[in-house]
Amino acid sequence: MFILPASLLLVACSGALEFSLILDQDAPGHKQNEAAVRALQKGDAERALQKLQKALKRHVTSAALQNSVGVTLMYLAKSRQTALKDKLQQAALHAFNRTVLLAGGSEGLGKGGKGRAKMQPRKGSDLEVALANQALAERYLEASRLNRLGIELDLQNRWEEAAALLREAQKAAPDDPLITSNLGTVIYKNATHRSSGWNE
Ligand SMILES: *[C@@H]1O[C@H](CO)[C@@H](O)[C@H](O)[C@H]1NC(C)=O
Ligand SMILES: *[C@@H]1O[C@H](CO)[C@@H](O)[C@H](O)[C@H]1NC(C)=O
């Protein structure tokens, strides 16, 4: 297995998305996987996804391909607005979940996460990459959830509470421009509307 160096990933994801790829030279479908990653690095995520989906039809049990699907979906999610972003992130998490299973992990024992805590992947294994990507995708989904709640509070002119939620969202996804810009808006509204007595 070969994990792309972080600098390459940064290019692939035009930000600090720290998702890792599984590029096993001997795995079935490796050539298609590499081609897809090249498309992704050029910023053509749609084409990468097409290539991966085609390859997955032939190599249904490839953890590497499934993992690349997740990374590509997260890349697509990054530049999307709230509703579609959520859908893409859910789909990415689903792909990482499948990757974990294909890499020999188990689904975990429900919400308690006991199963996952017991899972000790070998260092540098496909499973380790899959679990890390799964955890990261969950974090980004949580950020999206907080962002949505923040927007709801903003619509009710509850800017302080909105700002608190958006700050948490920003902690979970520091490089998400949507969250950063929402936070800026809410802080601005809080400052201007308050000082003009708008909310009193
Ligand atoms: C992925 O797996 C996690 C933990 O095993 C679970 O909580 C989540 O609902 C799953 N999500 C999807 C979209 O499959
Ligand atoms: C909102 O405005 C109040 C009053 O001007 C200020 O004390 C508070 O720090 C502001 N909160 C945020 C999150 O900007």
UniProtKB/TrEMBL annotation:
Keywords: Signal. Residues 1-16 form the signal peptide. It comes from the Eukaryota. This is Tetratricopeptide repeat protein. It comes from Symbiodinium pilosum (Dinoflagellate).
